[in-house]
Design brief:
Blueprint: H1 23-35, H2 41-46, H3 49-66, H4 71-82, E1 85-91, E2 109-112, H5 117-124, H6 126-130, E3 132-137, E4 142-144, E5 154-160
Length: about 160
């Protein structure tokens, strides 16, 4: 059996999953690097001398002094401090915090500070916004009106006429 990638031996001969983009990916990779103390075990084990030297430079000049790659911090600063966005989570099932397919907190909408429950409903689907009846704050289980301003991290169930 020929291995195309050093991690193939860990995956039973299959290529390992490749990482996509996005904040969750950068947070996952940054967390992995932090948990490993700035080490790259696969590259250190299978890389050549030039790659190992490059990794050592990255470790000593970036990862250790900065506590990670900094990608997550840049994205958070841009979204929350510069653009003044907050995360809001619309759900279908207010008890389980899932969508209709059972996925827990499947969507996160980054919305401007001051966004109302009805505006979030429109972002999810035009029909929800147009037929908005009320929304429910899933943490407190209280009904909130169309003009209620969302707070960072709100989990909301939108009720609309069918």
């Amino acid at each position: 059996m020929t291995l195309d990638h050093p991690a193939d031996s860990l995956q039973g001969g299959k290529n390992p999953p490749r990482f996509g983009g996005g904040p969750s990916c950068s947070r996952r990779l940054e967390g992995d690097v932090e948990e490993l103390g700035g080490r790259f075990p696969l590259l250190e084990a299978f890389g050549n001398d030039a790659q190992r030297k490059g990794l050592d430079y990255i470790r000593t000049h970036a990862l250790v002094p900065l506590g990670g790659t900094g990608v997550t911090k840049v994205l958070e600063t841009a979204a929350f401090e510069l653009l003044h966005l907050i995360p809001a989570f619309p759900v279908e099932d207010e008890a389980k915090l899932t969508d209709k397919e059972g996925r827990v907190l499947p969507d996160c909408h980054l919305v401007p500070v001051g966004t109302t429950a009805r505006q979030l409903a429109y972002r999810v689907h035009t029909d929800l916004g147009e037929h908005f009846i009320k929304a429910v704050d899933c943490r407190t289980h209280r009904a909130i009106g169309a003009d209620h301003e969302l707070k960072a991290g709100d989990v909301v169930k939108v009720h609309a006429k069918a």
